[in-house]
Amino acid sequence: MTRYLPKHPGRFILQVLKGFRANQGLLLSGAVAYYMLLSIVPLFTFLPIVLSRVVEPNLLMTTLTRFLVVIMPGGAALVAEQVANILAHPEIAGWVLLLVLLFFSSMAFAIIENAMSIIFSHRAPVRRRHFLTSALLPYLFIVLLGLGLLLTTVMSTALKVMTPDEIELLGREWSLGWLPVVLLYLSGFVGEVLMLTAIYMVMPVGRPKLRHALAGGISAGVLWELTRHVLAWYFSTLSMVSVVYGTLATTIVALLTFEVAAIILLLGAQVIAEYERVMR
After folding, report:
1. Which of 116-125, 168-177, 216-225 shows the lowest mean pLDDT across its residues?
2. Which residue blocks in 163-209 are alpha helix, DSSP H?
3. In sequence order, which residues have a C-beta less than 8 Å from that of residue 125 and are 6 or more positions away?
4. Residue 23 has pLDDT above 50, yes or no
5. Distance between CA 258 and CA 74 in Å, rounded?
6. Helix 210-237, helix 249-279: angle, nearest 10
7. Fewer CB within 10 A of the terminal residue: the chain, N end or C end?
8. Residue 30 and residue 258: Cα distance in Å, rounded?
9. In this structure, are residues 28 and 266 in contact, taking their beta carbons and an 8 Å threshold?
């Protein structure tokens, strides 16, 4: 395999795209994007409500905004504003919010699991997961996401305290104002790759290899980082969404962003599937 990819990168990419099309990847990603859109506000409202018991709410909102910029460039500010409004009136964020989160999160992960089973259909037949295992997987990832949010908040606070504004080197003073930003960006990218790798390890039924899942996670992570910067530039400069759709513009932007994110997620899985086929 290490000899095949360097010699035939174009052929491998073409195999990935053909397999993605044969598996109805665009249709599957549309279903994933729909349930992601419905669960994003309840999810990022529920997590700060829980974490605000141990972390100062303003710090949480700052970190949450960074999370949202990574997940949905173009609509992060409006979603963060909606979450802040709900947090300001916690009496409306009760059991209804939790039930909505549980329902739509389980539906989103069920769609992802079904999509993975289609993409990895070449694997030898294995026993399907127990119903309870599939039911608990979404909430395991929600817990991991909450821990990531908490860890990022702690890291950002520690970097601001520990990193000096400037240092003296070779007789000159050098500003280090960029260092916390770079470190947070790199840690966020590493966390993104690890989360994708965990999805590729856990969601497909079977016995995946860590290096295969990591290859898919890195491929999807790099592709998403490039794509989200393009989307942010497009929505801020060239997009006519607000003119065409009016008050629905935010929903359209969010749905389009999640559609692209779901395509990249499933493309990463397709990379792993083609990787396994070539090895065979």
Report:
1. 168-177
2. 179-202
3. none
4. yes
5. 11
6. 150
7. C
8. 8
9. yes
Domains of the chain, by residue range, sit at 4-159+176-279
Q: Mark residue 275 as left, alpha or beta (left: phi above 0; alpha: psi -120 to 50; beta: remaining).
A: alpha
- Token digits of residue 45: 């409202």
Both structure tokens of 58: 């303003």
Residue at token pair 């003073």: 173
Burial category of 216 from C-beta neighbours within 10 Å (exposed 0-12, middle 13-18, buried 19 and up): buried
CB contact at 8 A, 204 and 183: no
Average model confidence (pLDDT) across the chain? 75
Q: What is the pLDDT of residues 180-207, one digit of tens each?
A: 667 777 777 888 888 888 888 887 766 6
Q: Which of 118, 117, 3, 96 is nearest to 46 (CA)?
A: 96
Q: Which two tokens stand for residue 61?
A: 């909102």
Report the alpha-carbon distance of residue 232 to residue 257 in Å, rounded: 10
**Identity of residue 13:** I
* Alpha carbon distance 49, 57 (integer Å): 9
Where do we find the tokens 């960006």?
Answer: 185
Tracing tokens 């460039």 back to the chain, one arrives at 73
Residue type, 139: Y
CB contact at 8 A, 196 and 221: yes
Express each pLDDT in 46-105 by its tens digit: 777 777 777 777 777 777 777 777 777 766 777 777 777 777 766 666 666 677 777 777
Rounded average pLDDT over 9-20: 85
pTM of this structure: 0.78
Q: Which amino acid is at 201?
A: M
